[in-house]
């Protein structure tokens, strides 16, 4: 993509780049995110309504929601912009050496904060969350299948759901409340973010897409 396509709003070319917007997520990536959010919400609500008896018509809704996550993602890959989707996934899950080093230092000394390095599309915190969330959602599904085949003998399903919910609360805090990260919400809803925000939090990414 060229720079002209990336910078979607050129109405105000202010000297401080104030009103420039940069393309971040296309329709396929946004569909994949919000489809997953909707189906996880449906699974969570039907699960809570069903309680630990785990039977009746709600169980069908509950299991269908999870199957539909897979159906939606497969459809996104089949008919959407799979190149952009895989590209975003690669950015999200590949942890580079300097990022791993930063994570180790930060986890060891959480209060000692230096200047923010020029991160790529996602920062190491987001990558760590992505791995943790993937693992915990997998644990929810596996324990769900185990509970299901044991006739609703819960086991570790509810605890796995709690771990996932805690991770999602952290994600929600970053997406909606935390002033430094909530400008990203615009990208996940409309597809673009402010140039000034990207320059501050994802400087390397900005350079990469300019090339
Ligand atoms: C994102 C995925 C899922 C979420 C958020 C979720 C959430 C929940 C919640 C909150 C409950 C109620 C727990 C309780 O009150 O003790 C529950 C129960 C249950 N879920 Fe899930 N679930 C998911 C996936 C699945 C899957 C894939 C299956 C089976 C294929 C499944 C099978 C069951 C069964 C059988 C119960 C009733 C017995 C029990 O509590 O273990 N769930 N689920
Ligand atoms: C089942 C629920 C959800 C899952 C599994 C999920 C998962 C993810 C993942 C893996 C990412 C990529 C990296 C990152 O962590 O930023 C992401 C990005 C994002 N999510 Fe979610 N999410 C969920 C719910 C939500 C909700 C409810 C919101 C907002 C109200 C939200 C807002 C965002 C935003 C704004 C981004 C983009 C961050 C950026 O541009 O850097 N997510 N989500």
Find the count of extended strands (DSSP E, 2+ residues).
2
The ordered string of helix (H) and strand (E) elements is: HEHHHHHHHEHH
Largest sheet: 2 strands, antiparallel
What overall form do the CA principal axes indicate? globular
- Residue fraction in strands: under 5%
Proportion of helical residues: 55-70%
User: What name is given to the CATH topology?
Assistant: Fumarate Reductase Cytochrome B subunit
Which class in CATH terms? Mainly Alpha
Low-confidence stretches: 1-6, 9-15
Main-sheet strand order equals 1-2
Number of domains: 1
If helices are DSSP runs of H or I spanning 4 or more residues, what is the number of helices? 10
CATH A-level architecture:
Up-down Bundle
Overall SS class: mainly alpha
Task: Name the bound molecules.
Answer: protoporphyrin IX containing FE
Say which CATH homologous superfamily is assigned. Answer: Transmembrane di-heme cytochromes, Chain C
- What is the straight-line distance between the termini? 8 Å
The average pLDDT is: 90
List keywords for this structure.
211 residues; mainly alpha; Fumarate Reductase Cytochrome B subunit; two-stranded antiparallel sheet; 10 helices; 2 strands; 68% helix; 3% strand; globular; disordered N terminus; binds protoporphyrin IX containing FE
